[in-house]
């Protein structure tokens, strides 16, 4: 190792050394200076080469790890010539950080167009799924068989239950109310365009429509029917999601301003408008007193209440692609997990509140429907019409 006496002072080279005496070399064009400069140059050059090699190695290792977590496109279409053992890409419909974090129980085939909504009513042994093909399927949770198909003859945008026997179906230009006990069907005419979202609070029914309106219907126990009560006109384009948290109705839209008004349910007035997203806000989720929103601007935002009653973004999670839908679930240990569907045909799963990635689910087309079931079950429905049942397990 070279002594300090033959190492050129870097401060002297810059003309700003203020130490006297300085333990490093100050001097002109002499042998010691030339040798010290050459030694430093070679040392720096070797160091840079080593750092460059390490960076290339780390980058290559990261790429190889990412390949192991990317779905093989040939496996996707059923003809990979390498097979699962030799292919560098993933031959599975999911991966997780745990050895047996979650797994695919079974696929359910019955729709021929994108699945728009999945629902399992509380305490029921039936699973419901709706599709753009105009059908509503009832699945037996024990056998996985489709036991009933209702054909509404037009695209279905959403479904919702309110009570043990009332099923609401959002279709084009109307909301259908189906009584599962006596198989009667009531049609609520008034929405303009496809109904994308439904919500209920006490004796009120809300539907978010394609023209940006939110229609409010009031239920009359005397006549056992609904009648129009109000029309909320805060959005300029389609209302994509409705969720109720506390006594507030939150709505998200794909309008250019990306507004998310919060409607006071007692006065039906818009009390707040949130505009932090820069593209269509596709889905809302209410989790542990927090509002979570996702958008085609490739972000998921977490909102918290301020002292004045408003909302502010406390965390923004950025994705690589636009986010289509959100779902909340719990793993086998009770950990809260957020599922986030992207328009690259994947679903990302994250622990809450850390947003630590838990795993990914792959599909042939975009997953538009996410739903949580009992006993660690959760469901995904994609644009290919495939409904998949997943289950959480303990490592």
Automatic annotation (TrEMBL):
The keyword Cytoplasm does not apply. GO terms for molecular function: zinc ion binding. Residues 3-29, 71-94 form the C3H1-type domain. Keywords: Metal-binding, WD repeat, Zinc, Zinc-finger. Residues 37-59 are annotated as: Disordered. WD repeats lie at residues 108-149, 274-303. This is C3H1-type domain-containing protein.
């Amino acid at each position: 190792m070279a002594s300090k006496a033959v190492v050129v002072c870097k401060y002297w080279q810059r003309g700003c050394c203020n130490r006297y005496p300085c333990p490093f070399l100050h001097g002109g064009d002499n042998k010691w200076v030339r040798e010290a400069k050459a030694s430093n140059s070679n040392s720096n050059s070797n160091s840079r080469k080593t750092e460059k090699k390490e960076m290339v190695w780390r980058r290559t290792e990261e790429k190889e790890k990412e390949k192991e977590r990317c779905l093989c496109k040939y496996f996707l279409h059923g003809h990979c010539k390498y097979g699962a053992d030799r292919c560098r890409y993933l031959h599975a419909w999911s991966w997780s950080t745990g050895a047996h974090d979650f797994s695919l129980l079974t696929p359910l085939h019955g729709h021929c167009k994108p699945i728009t909504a999945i629902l399992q009513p509380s305490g029921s042994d039936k699973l419901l799924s709706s599709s753009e093909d105009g059908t509503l399927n009832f699945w037996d949770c024990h056998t996985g068989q489709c036991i009933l198909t209702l054909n509404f003859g037009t695209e279905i945008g959403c479904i919702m239950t309110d009570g043990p026997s009332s099923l609401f179906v959002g279709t084009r230009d109307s909301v259908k109310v189906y009584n599962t006990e006596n198989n009667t069907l009531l049609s609520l005419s008034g929405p303009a365009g496809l109904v994308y979202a439904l919500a209920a609070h006490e004796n009120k029914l809300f539907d978010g429509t394609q023209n940006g309106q939110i229609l409010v219907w009031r239920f009359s126990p005397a006549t056992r029917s609904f009648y129009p009560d109000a029309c909320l006109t805060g959005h300029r384009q389609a209302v994509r999601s409705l969720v109720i948290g506390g006594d507030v109705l939150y709505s998200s839209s794909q309008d250019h301003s990306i507004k998310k008004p919060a409607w006071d349910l007692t006065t039906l007035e818009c009390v707040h408008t949130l505009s932090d997203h820069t593209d269509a806000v596709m889905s809302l989720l209410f989790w542990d007193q927090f509002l979570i929103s996702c958008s085609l601007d490739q972000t998921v935002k977490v909102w918290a209440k301020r002292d004045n009653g408003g909302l502010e973004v406390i965390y923004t999670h950025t994705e690589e692609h636009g986010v289509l839908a959100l779902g909340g679930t719990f793993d086998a240990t009770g950990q809260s997990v957020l599922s986030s569907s992207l328009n690259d045909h994947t679903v990302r799963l994250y622990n809450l509140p850390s947003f630590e990635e838990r795993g990914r689910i792959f599909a042939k087309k975009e997953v538009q429907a996410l739903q949580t079931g009992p006993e660690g079950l959760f469901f995904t429905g994609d644009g290919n019409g495939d409904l998949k049942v997943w289950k959480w397990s303990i490592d």
